[in-house]
Design a protein that fits this description.
Blueprint: H1 7-116, H2 136-139, H3 148-154, E1 158-161, E2 164-169, E3 172-175, E4 191-192, H4 199-212, H5 226-238, H6 249-255
Antiparallel strand pairs: 1-2, 2-3, 3-4
């Protein structure tokens, strides 16, 4: 005989089973939902982190490039400005130097010109400037015209200097007129010498000393031309000497070269 089944118990058991399955389903759904949220959150976090990294990397790269460009431009501008300032200052300094130098040259030229205007070159050996025993050689000088043979037979020392022939006598050099019909003499007169120097060597010493003293700004060529004679005359006038414009013993002694 089969046992009897309690219908109410069966119904209640089914109800409990359905409720249990419903709770499990809900729990599973909630778990899946929470899991999905966590997964999405992690996924979003990873995505956002990647995006933020890319954005920040690009931003940092852009900022670095901007700063780098700024530094490069700043250094470039500094270099350019430094070069421009150097060029500008160099040009300005050059202009100022030229202006100062021009002023100094003009001042010296004007001083020399005005000083020379106060006297005249004296080529007259019979004038009062050649009084006294120290200038007897100049007072007694006069041109002597002789041919080459005569000069060689009467003079022990004859040299060719600056286009002309000179003979030595008693401490002075004199033009040897007629020795060569084509000879040229920038200065016709005696030239006092020392230590056996030739006329051009003596003239060079005089030009250099006058140049150091600020009296002569012409070429140092060993020629006793007008500029050298003017400088000698100016020196003689300033130092209380007879203004002879010639290379005489008192002048060389005052110049300190004889």
């Amino acid at each position: 005989m089969a046992p009897r089944v309690n219908r109410s118990a069966v119904v209640n058991q089914d109800t409990r089973m359905r409720a249990f399955r419903q709770r499990n389903f809900s729990s599973n759904r909630d778990f899946r939902a929470r899991t999905s949220v966590a997964v999405n959150r992690n996924r979003n976090f990873a995505v956002n982190r990647t995006r933020n990294f890319d954005v920040n990397r690009d931003r940092n790269t852009a900022e670095f490039r901007a700063r780098n460009d700024l530094a490069i431009n700043r250094e470039r501008n500094v270099a350019i400005n430094r070069t421009r300032n150097f060029d500008f200052n160099r040009d300005r300094n050059t202009a100022e130097f030229r202006a100062r130098k021009g002023l100094a040259i003009n001042r010296d030229r004007n001083f020399a010109f005005n000083r020379r205007s106060n006297f005249a070159i004296n080529n007259n050996f019979r004038s009062d400037a050649f009084r006294g025993q120290q200038y007897a050689v100049f007072r007694n000088y006069h041109r002597e015209w002789h041919d080459r043979g005569w000069w060689r037979s009467h003079c022990d020392r004859i040299i060719f200097v600056s286009g002309g022939w000179y003979y030595w006598n008693a401490g002075y050099w004199f033009p040897a007129w007629g020795y060569d019909p084509y000879a040229y003499y920038a200065y016709d007169g005696p030239i006092y010498a020392y230590n056996g120097l030739t006329p051009d060597q003596v003239i060079v010493d005089v030009q250099l000393q006058l140049q150091r003293a600020g009296y002569y700004d012409g070429p140092v060529d060993g020629i006793l031309g007008p500029m050298t004679q003017e400088a000698i005359a100016a020196f003689q006038a300033d130092n209380g000497l007879a203004v002879t414009a010639a290379i005489d013993e008192p002048t060389l002694a005052t110049l300190g070269i004889a």
